[in-house]
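Hi R.,

Here's the input for the uridine-diphosphate-N-acetylglucosamine complex you asked about:
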Amino acid sequence: MSHIVIQGGRRLEGTLTVQGAKNSVLPILAATILHPGRTTLRGCPRLSDVEASIRILRHLGCKAEWEGEELTVDASTLDRWDVPDHLMREMRSSVIFLGAILARMGWAELSHPGGCELGPRPIDLHLAALRQLGAQLREESGCLQCSAQCMEGREIVLSMPSVGATENAMLAACGAEGETVLVNAAREPEIGDLQAFLCGMGCRVRGAGSSTICVQGRRPTHDSVHTVMPDRIAAATYLAAAAAAGGEVELRRVSHGHLSTVTAALHAAGCQISGGEGQVALRSAGHLRSIGTVRTAPYPGFPTDAQAILMAALLRARGATVFVENIFENRYRHVDELCRMGADISVADRVAVVTGVPELCGAQVRCTDLRGGAALLGAGPAPPGGTPNGGVF
Ligand code: UD1
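And here is the predicted structure with uridine-diphosphate-N-acetylglucosamine in place:
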């Protein structure tokens, strides 16, 4: 789909079931190759990044078959250890295959990953963790050659709690001898889902959700079935869109706890929120108030992935809200597009100040990155009347 046209001036009403989490399923797909057998993923979202992961799996020699929302990967036929440049460039998460291929094959060859442009996205922490496990790494013309005939478990201290580096180290550590202790690990819920997946196929991992994760080097022992956790960022997107436009939505298959910083912000902005077991409901009159300062931070702080969509919700709020983006250097690319819709936002370095305006207008805007694009869609229903020449491209 190259463009979406939104007719504005409508409330958002309805109930929906939240899909499986992108940020959870991608490392899990990489992890499937640890087991030379079959793995079934339930509630697997059909996203372009998932299809890109499947292309990598098939290139490596695995079989991958869909049955509805269930994806089965058979990695018993894996016979390669390289990922070609064009597959690596399709997404950032391709880098997680590095730890998994090393653990399974003892050798890996790939190039630097692609992904949304959010400023520099180095992989130095990933590589440092693998080196500490005993992997030998050589970089030549953008190509990484890694060998790890005998990785040994040990304490690895991450200088920042990078989600991807934590995942890469966890997967590599499954193929190492002895115990690996990851210190200052990321605490995102998706790390917990990866741990649950690994344990489900017989690996020994504990501590996810805390900043110390212990992995006993051990190959998976059996085929498994895993249900992918619900996507907390997709859920946040639906809530923020309803908050902006006004309306009433109920989300099913969500974890209220994983959304607490987002729902707290929407509540502070004047929305009514209620949550029960696996369910969250939001009611908004569409007239919100500003909420002071929102600072993105590693989990359990406010997620950087929800910064753009919350900003979109507050464009018409009374007063000014300040955003401080602490995770990525260049994550305000949606701002110029939102301003085309009549928003009043000024950016200086990592700080964006959003001053509420009475009305937005329809405009032709361009998706800059995944979450920035979601923000444009979230803001789209708010402008009154039709937007015949508008659209998100
Ligand atoms: C993951 C999520 C992404 C989310 C981000 C932060 C997936 C597929 N993506 O991305 O949606 O926005 O977490 O919650 O799960 N860094 C380094 N060196 C490294 C690695 C990271 O300096 O080797 C820096 C990054 O540039 C960034 C920060 O650490 O400033 C956080 O990045 P990280 O947590 O690694 O994000 P990703 O795993 O790429």
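One thing worth noting: The radius of gyration is 21 Å.

Cheers,
M.
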